[in-house]
C-alpha cells in the first residue's frame, strides 16, 4: 500500500521552461511534506518543505504547492536549468510518533539545454 | 564539518556473511535513521533512533539490527546477509524529527 505516489517516473523539459513534478498521498494524518533531490551516487538532498497549514511555500526558483482536499502536492521549478537534472523524491511525515518519512518512488527530471 | 558520513561506500558480501554499516554525524542531531533504496522504489525505513539509547523498527526491519552507540553514531548490522539485501543504504539525521539530512550511501551487493 503506497501512501505516497509519484506517478510519473520521468519528465523532460527544455532549459528555461517550467518543470512541474507531482505527488499524491493517501494518508490524511500526514502534516508536513518535503521534496528531495538526488544525483547519482549521492545521498538525497533536502530541497523544500511545506506544512499542512500552508498551501504554498517558495524558495528561489522552487515552489511547492499543497492541495489538502485533493491530497496532492507539486513542485514547480522556474526557470529550469540543466543542473536541475536529477531524481526528485516527494516525502511525507507526521502520521506516527517516530516522525519517520514516507517516500514516493521518485521522478527523474531531465532538463535539455 | 562533514555532516553525515557513512562507511564503507561499497561492499560485496557472500550469502551468509555478516557486516556492519557505520554512520556518524557531527550535526548534534537527536534522531537518526537507516533507509534502503531499491530500483524503482522510494527509500524505505529500516530502523530509527529518536534519541541516544533508543531504537525502534521501521517498515522493513527483518534481517537487520541496529546500535545507537552514542549521540553521534548509529550502526546497522546484517547478521547473515541474503541476496534480497542487495541495495543502497542511506543513513539520515534530524534535529526535530521532520527535515532529514542524508549521508552519501553505502552500495551493498550480496552474492
Short description:
The complex is a heterodimer of chains A (113) and B (111). Chain A is mainly β. Chain A has no helices and eleven strands.
What does this structure look like?
The complex is a heterodimer of chains A (113) and B (111). Chain A is mainly beta and 113 residues long. Chain A is built from no helices and 11 strands. In chain A, the strands form 2 sheets. In chain A, strands 2, 4, 5, 9, 10 and 11 form a 6-stranded mixed β-sheet that branches. A 5-stranded antiparallel β-sheet of chain A has the order 1-3-8-7-6, with no helix packed on it. Chain A is globular and about 40 Å long. In chain B, the strands form 2 sheets. In chain B, strands 2, 4, 5, 6, 9, 10 and 11 form a 7-stranded mixed β-sheet that branches. Chain B is built from no helices and 11 strands. The mean pLDDT of chain B is 94. Chain B is an all-beta fold and 111 residues long. In chain B, a hairpin with a 5-residue loop joins strand 4 and strand 5. Classes of the chains: A mainly beta (113), B mainly beta (111). Chains A and B meet through strand 4, strand 5, strand 9 and strand 10 of A and strand 4, strand 5, strand 9 and strand 10 of B.
Q: Provide the residue-averaged pLDDT of chain B.
A: 94
Calculate the terminal CA-CA distance of chain A, rounded to whole Å: 38 Å
Strand content of chain A: over 45%
Structural class of chain B: mainly beta
Q: Main sheet of chain A?
A: 6 strands, mixed
**What percentage of the residues of chain B does DSSP assign to strands (E)?**
over 45%
Order of helices and strands of chain A: EEEEEEEEEEE
Question: Unreliable segments of chain A (pLDDT under 50, ≥5 consecutive)?
Answer: none
Total number of helical segments of chain A? 0
Look at the helices and sheets of chain A and give the structural class. mainly beta
In one word, what is the shape of chain B? Answer: globular
- The overall pLDDT average of chain A reads 93
Distance between the termini of chain B: 36 Å
Amino acid at each position: 500500500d503506497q501512501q505516497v505516489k509519484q506517478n510519473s517516473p520521468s519528465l523532460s523539459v527544455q532549459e528555461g521552461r517550467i518543470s512541474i513534478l507531482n505527488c499524491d498521498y493517501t494518508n490524511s494524518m500526514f502534516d508536513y511534506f518535503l521534496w528531495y533531490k538526488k544525483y547519482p551516487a549521492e545521498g538525497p538532498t533536502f530541497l523544500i518543505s511545506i506544512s499542512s497549514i500552508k498551501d504554498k511555500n517558495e524558495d528561489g526558483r522552487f515552489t511547492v504547492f499543497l492541495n489538502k482536499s485533493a491530497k496532492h502536492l507539486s513542485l514547480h521549478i522556474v526557470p529550469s536549468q540543466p543542473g536541475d537534472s536529477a531524481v526528485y523524491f516527494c516525502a511525507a511525515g507526521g502520521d506516527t510518533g517516530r516522525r519517520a518519512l514516507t517516500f514516493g518512488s521518485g521522478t527523474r527530471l531531465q532538463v535539455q539545454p | 564539518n562533514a555532516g553525515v558520513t557513512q562507511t564503507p561506500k561499497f561492499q560485496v558480501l557472500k550469502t551468509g556473511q555478516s557486516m556492519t554499516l557505520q554512520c556518524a554525524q557531527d550535526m548534534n542531531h537527536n534522531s537518526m535513521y537507516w533507509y534502503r533504496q531499491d530500483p524503482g522504489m522510494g527509500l524505505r525505513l529500516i530502523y530509527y533512533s529518536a534519541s541516544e539509547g533508543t531504537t525502534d523498527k521501521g517498515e522493513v526491519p527483518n534481517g537487520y539490527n541496529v546500535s545507537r552507540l552514542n549521540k553521534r553514531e548509529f550502526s546497522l548490522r546484517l547478521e547473515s546477509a541474503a541476496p534480497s539485501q542487495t541495495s543502497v543504504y542511506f543513513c539520515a539525521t534530524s534535529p526535530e524529527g521532520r527535515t532529514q539530512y542524508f549521508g552519501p550511501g553505502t552500495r551493498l551487493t550480496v552474492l
